[in-house]
Amino acid sequence: MTIAETGAPPRAADPRVLAEAGRRRAFAVISHPDAGKSTLTEALALHASAITQAGAVHGKAGRRGVTSDWMAMERARGISITSAALRFDYGDMVLNLLDTPGHADFSEDTYRVLSAVDCAIMLLDSAKGLEPQTLKLFDVCRSRGVPVITFVNKWDRPGREPLELLDEIEQRIGLHPAPVNWPVGVAGDFRGLIERATGEYVTFERTPGGAGRALETVLDPAAAQARDGAAYAAAEEELALLDEVYGTAVDMETFLGGVTSPVLFGAALPNFGVRRLLDAVTTYAPAPSPRDDVKGEPRPVGAPFSGLVFKVQANMDPAHRDRMAFVRVCSGRFERGMVLTHAATGRPFATKYAQSMFGQDRETVEEAFPGDVIGLVNATALRPGDTLYAGEAPVEFPPIPSFAPEHFAVVRGKDAGKAKQFRRGIEQLDTEGVIQVLSSDLRGDQAPVLAAVGPLQFDVVLHRLEHEFGSRAELDHLDYSMARRTDADGARALAGQRSVEVLTRRDDGALLALLSDKWRLAQVQREHPDILLEPLIAG
Ligand code: G4P
């Protein structure tokens, strides 16, 4: 809205909000399972002194520390199904690390988390380089305009040549690598890191079990030569080559434009090179910036409070059957107790029970600024993608695009006496965005169709139906592998056709045509050239 439209001059932004936003960084780690994301998360938090001993955040099976026990399934599988948001101070900065789910399935959760960050760390296993999940996640970052810092992990183990890894990044994803530091000693015989900008050589000494900060020593070139002779000389030769091929410094403009990626080497488990990675996050990752609203107008960081719900999670605390919405602060200052407006319904939303998260520990949050994540308890009305705002002027951010489902199954309650629990559970999981729920008059309420991006979503639904809602359920997998958006005419034309079924998506009423495969789709398109069969947007 312009001044002419409102008749009032714009209010000056609160300088404190701008200062606080300027020292915040919201980022996520993207990686293939087993590349070391949990280990790195712990190491980052450890370096930032948020926890005293590695292992306190995720409590992965077998690790020491506080275990997360709200979801037994998570523990049993040793995977993280939920997203935790960690907030920690690092020097003058406040870092918010949003956790992307670590399992092999690609789920919509991951996409939503990447909608709420300003930067991502692409974590690679030095022996494996780019893996399928890394590539998928990188594509999401690229489509969302999220700049990427690369960390090559596990350098303490035998792996590939560093130059070969840089080449792979450049060739396969077209990202121009800008090495920030360079390893001395081949993977598996890690001696230390040379800082390219200064030539400083940092060596590391292991602490027992890796649980603790690695001892770092800075050596001058003469001392480095004396200590690591041939390995140091080889690294120096490679450095000369790097200057020619990759230039000498990270160019901020091309980094923010998604063209280049600063690359750092290290090993999360023994804590080598992790402090340097934190410095890179604070140096390169951008501070929160204006976010476009649905009309394409940027909402300034200093405008009154606005936030984006990027995740909704129920029953995190078995003692209190609650429902927590995670909100990324986009503009303004959040203060606990504020009454906000829920843009989707226009209804007020009270924030008496706002919390910040640290792993499984919660603490009440009194205030928050752009780049922070707050957890709102009792958030029954909120859904991923929703906007909350303060003040008179409404704002709504564009919905987070949802992925096209590829797996479909009918779900039925096993106990006839628990129909109510079953319906309540399905409704809740739909609202949380755990899975998409489709229905039709033909199938009825007792046997809706679930649509998932990855099959693990089905397991989560069955587990939660049983353990949280007291309704055991079973699945009947359907022979469809794709969905297309259609309309009432399309539904009429497709009624009764073989290997096609039109269902209504519960959350937005969209009509989806499910088809067995792309050949059937092509055939239907040939036979009915006039009907709407629109791909669902994937990004
Ligand atoms: P993820 O969250 O990405 O799935 O990976 P996670 O951190 O669980 O790491 C996967 C395995 O890789 C773990 O071993 C972990 O200890 C190991 N790892 C991570 N970073 C490094 C590193 O820098 N160097 C070495 N040598 N290993 C690393 P695990 O045996 O599967 O599990 P655990 O029993 O150690 O937890």
Describe the overall structure:
With 539 residues, the chain is an alpha+beta fold. It has 3 domains: 3-11 and 291-389, P-loop containing nucleotide triphosphate hydrolases (Rossmann fold); 27-91 and 99-284, 3-Layer(aba) Sandwich (Rossmann fold), CATH 3.40.50; 407-535, Peptide chain release factor 3, domain III (Alpha-Beta Plaits). It has 14 helices and 31 strands. The strands form 6 sheets. Strands 18-17-23-14-15-22-19-20 form an 8-stranded antiparallel β-sheet. α3 (37-47) crosses α10 (274-284) and α11 crosses α12 (456-469). The chain is globular, with a radius of gyration of 25 Å. The chain starts with a helix and ends with a strand. Guanosine-5',3'-tetraphosphate (G4P) is lined by residues 31, 33-39, 60, 62-63, 102, 153-154, 156-157, 267-269. Residues 31, 33-39, 60, 62-63, 102, 153-154, 156-157, 267-269 line the site of guanosine-5',3'-tetraphosphate (G4P).
Total discrete domains: 3
- How many beta-strand runs? 31
Structural class of the secondary structure composition?
alpha+beta
Total number of helices: 14
Can you give keywords for this protein?
27% helix; alpha+beta; Rossmann fold; 539 residues; globular; disordered N terminus; 31 strands; eight-stranded antiparallel β-sheet; Alpha-Beta Plaits; binds guanosine-5',3'-tetraphosphate; 14 helices; 3 domains; 28% strand
